[in-house]
Amino acid sequence: MKINIARILCAMLAVTTWLSAWCAPEPKTPLIVAQDGSGDFKTIQEAVYAVRDYTPVPITIKVKKGVYHEKLIIPSWKCDITISGESEENTVITWDDFAKKPLVYFGDSIAEMGTFRTHTVLVAGNRVTLENLTIENTAGRVGQAVALHTEGNQIIVRRCRLLGNQDTLFTGNEESHVYFDECYIDGTTDFIFGPATCWFESCRIHSKTDSYITAASTSKDRRFGYVFNDCDLTSDDGATKVYLGRPWRAYAAVVFMNCRLGKHIRPEGWENWRNPDNEKTARYAEYNCTGAGASTAGRVKWCSRLNESEAAYYTRDNVLAGTWWKR
Question: Does residue 237 carry a catalytic annotation?
């Protein structure tokens, strides 16, 4: 009988590979981050990089209380991660980049940093959850300075504080869907901006100065942009003339539903970014809002007042394209 050594070796390799996969230990979860060395890692970035690329098993990273001076990046190949702080107010990720800061390579300043490099936290991976965290950009009032920048799809931001000034929250990527639940978001100018589709549920949106809250850049073919539901719009005492939004791009889409608008909201509500043509395309609407700033009597004529049947179409499932937000 002739023995085919090559076939035997291939069979042995296949069995070995199958046994290795079958016997491989489950990845550790949660991973613990603690600055005092009592956990698995001392920095959040180390923990993120330790997660297997495109992990087949969702991984939780628990972060102990502390102030983490990190410019944290969750790259596109790090998905299905939950980063959970021990305390919303006392687990802080902080950085201070800003748009006009010199961009330095090999000791030479070659340009300004620009808005989209200024993030404290960048989430590019899909199915990432951030919870019980403070994410802040402490650059001050020096122009654009992003605290949280999202690019991935099916992102959840729950019980987080997002602190900054101009451009606090950038929701990038027009294909992306992001769910903000019970968050506090503050800033000065255009401090919630970008092209992503986002639902804000039971959030507090706090204006620090007279300026604009949203600067959506929703693309023309997107049915939804930003939807704020059951949110509180508040302000510092010195902020008395705040617009709900202005269109960063022509087809900006923003809806405020069932929200409580403080007296700092201007009677006009919306601004056209000094371009009357935007009034023909921007998609701004309100429904069933209350408070001193909620009267629509003085609103610009080019914003909409949704009726009950129109408002019924604005559900989380519809806006976020599924029920993934329930995870």
Answer: no
